[in-house]
Write a structure and sequence with these properties.
Blueprint: H1 6-17, H2 21-28, H3 34-40, H4 48-57, H5 63-68, E1 91-94, H6 104-109, H7 112-115, E2 118-121, E3 129-132, E4 147-153, E5 164-169, E6 172-180, E7 185-189, E8 198-201, E9 205-215
Antiparallel strand pairs: 1-2, 3-4, 4-9, 5-6, 5-9, 6-7, 7-8
Amino acid sequence: MDPMNPIDRLIALKQHTGMSLKRMSEEAGINTSQTLYEIKKGRHSFSMEVANKIHKRWPEISRGWLMSGEGDMILGNPGYEPELVATNISRVPLLPVSAFAGPIKNFVSDGITAGECETILSPSPGAELAIPVSGDSMEPVLHDGTIIFVKRINDRAFIPWGQTMVIDTENGAFVKDLFPGDEDTIIARSKNPRYPDMHIPHASIYGIYRVVNAIRSFGVM
């Protein structure tokens, strides 16, 4: 089963608790309900601090699921899950916007990501790269300046159609919702209706990356 995005995870959490966002914030001791509203608007994801507080209030909820969407929401052994700490969160290369002047494949294979890229803390286990979103084609979900964390899909037969992906092509990399086209193409669709669909030939695709998380603002340390 494909991981849920942060908005879907928040909806599932709200259904489980039967509470409003404001009440959940108060019950979990989250400083402000605005944090959950930012997640609802697609501007932020579950931070390590928020995941720990929610799990403390509702010990049956998995911290790992809150942050990455992977696994089950409800723990088989409620409360038996180690607290998330900063050392569990990995660092990934942060590709500069200039990477989108060409394919990610070329950028990574040149070794630039390993030797010259800045790195950023990833809020999700399994992320391989962080990429800044440029432009408004994925508004209102992904804003200009949003950082997305991605993981390469190894087998195209298991593409989760309809979800937001980064598709790496000979003409550059694009953040789009992907849909099956005809036998020779994939349809890449923007969330912003002002942008037309792209029909990308299979032959021009180098790789597809699943978006596992996103943050609106960040700091490189």
